[in-house]
Design a protein that fits this description.
Elements (H helix, E strand, L loop, with lengths): L4 H4 L13 E3 L29 H11 L6 E5 H13 L5 E6 L4 H8 L3 E6 L8 H11 L3 E5 L11 H10 L3 E5 L22 E6 L11 E5 L2 H10 L7 H11 L2 H24 L3 E2 L6 E5 L5 H7 L2 E5 L7 E5 L3 H21 L1
Bound molecules: pyridoxal-5'-phosphate.
Pyridoxal-5'-phosphate binds next to helix 3.
């Protein structure tokens, strides 16, 4: 049996099969909310979970100050990204996104045989909204993915620029705010949801909440969008354990805020250390740094020392994305980078 042609050439999402001593490749955070574990005795896991996820949507609503009827939960925001493509974009219709950006936009586009058009970033990787507007005029897309702060480059797109885009196109504009908590939220589009009927916003609990393991994301959109997506989603798509843990986590937003502040200050510390080591740094508003280094094969050299970071290839060769680790992990990273630099000097 052969898969459909769009799948034959598909290079799926790449995840390292090997566990490293320190994993700084996937923009996870420590699970700091439940260090003592959770008591899940009372969960009725013999029954299907709540198909409408009422409790979790209500808690999300309190967290982002939006009525829960405008919210759709997802099995990670990844599921919701896919649901948008599935629901709104037909074969050969166009999806736009900046390049580089989160790789799944392109992968979902390919799976559903849509046409993905990458909009170039500036040479310093900052994002020019006018180019996106021009591409939208030229290609007439059904869906535009905007990632802010952008993964992997860390840039934010100002709110007034996203509004300009929304006003210039009839495409559905999906603003992926997976890392928005790390920016203090000032550029979030969540509170614009009632002003633009072509806007949806995606969020996740995988980053600031440190809960990548429970696969919980959410989408905010107008009632028509929520209705369309509900028709397409699988029944009971969000399992009972995730709904349960998500509710508990959303009631701990002060702890989450504390952790975000800590990650921001560790991000600043790591920036200082890496610039001392002659890395080229880009401004980053996420829980990661995007850097360029002339050290040949830095990703492999760090792997040999037990540390995994995200190394890119092709036109992004020599660029790396490094998740902000714990204080100790960051110290070990800097120490091993110094060793690599020292060994490099001695070998040349
Ligand atoms: C920009 C962006 N969007 C979405 C996701 C997917 O997150 P989730 O774990 O909620 O599926 C990621 C994960 O790294 C991401 O970087």
């Amino acid at each position: 049996m052969r898969p459909k042609p769009s799948i034959e050439s598909l290079k799926g999402y790449q995840v390292s099969p090997i566990q490293y001593e320190i994993q700084l490749d996937a923009n996870e955070s420590k699970n700091f909310l439940f260090p003592k574990g959770l008591n899940i005795k009372d969960l009725s896991i013999n029954l299907y979970p709540d198909n409408q996820a009422l409790d979790i949507r209500s808690e999300i609503g309190k967290y982002i100050l939006i009525d829960s009827k405008y919210i759709l939960e997802g099995n990670g925001s990844s599921e919701l990204l896919e649901l948008l493509v599935k629901t709104y974009v037909d074969k050969n219709e166009v999806i736009l996104s900046y390049e580089p950006s989160f790789s799944m936009y392109k992968i979902y586009s390919q799976i559903y045989s849509t046409t993905f058009v990458g909009v170039p970033s500036r040479s310093d990787f900052s994002l020019d909204i006018q180019i996106m507007i021009d591409y939208a005029k030229q290609y007439n897309p059904k869906l535009i993915f905007i990632c802010t702060p952008n993964n992997p480059t860390g840039y934010l797109i100002p709110k007034n620029e996203i509004k300009r885009l929304l006003e210039s196109t009839t495409a559905l504009v999906a603003v992926d705010e997976a890392y928005m908590e790390f920016t203090d939220g000032l550029t979030s589009m969540v509170d614009e949801i009632h002003n633009y009927n072509n806007l949806v916003v995606l969020r996740t609990m995988s980053k600031a909440f440190g809960l990548a393991g429970i696969r919980l994301g959410y989408l905010i959109g107008n009632l028509d969008v929520i209705k369309d997506l509900n028709k397409v989603k699988s029944p009971y798509h969000l399992n009972a354990l995730s709904q349960y843990v998500g509710v508990k986590a959303l009631q701990m937003k002060d702890e989450v805020r504390k952790n975000v502040l800590e990650i921001q200050s560790r991000r600043n510390e790591l920036e200082v250390e890496l610039s001392k080591l002659k890395f080229h740094l880009y401004p980053s508003f996420g829980n990661f740094l995007f850097v360029q280094s002339d050290i040949e094969n830095l990703g492999d050299l760090l792997k040999n020392k037990g540390i995994l970071i995200r190394a890119f290839s092709n036109e992004l060769k020599s660029y790396y994305r490094i998740t902000i680790g714990t204080k100790e992990e960051n110290e070990i990273l800097v120490h091993r980078l110094k060793e690599i630099i020292y060994e490099n000097i001695n070998n040349n």
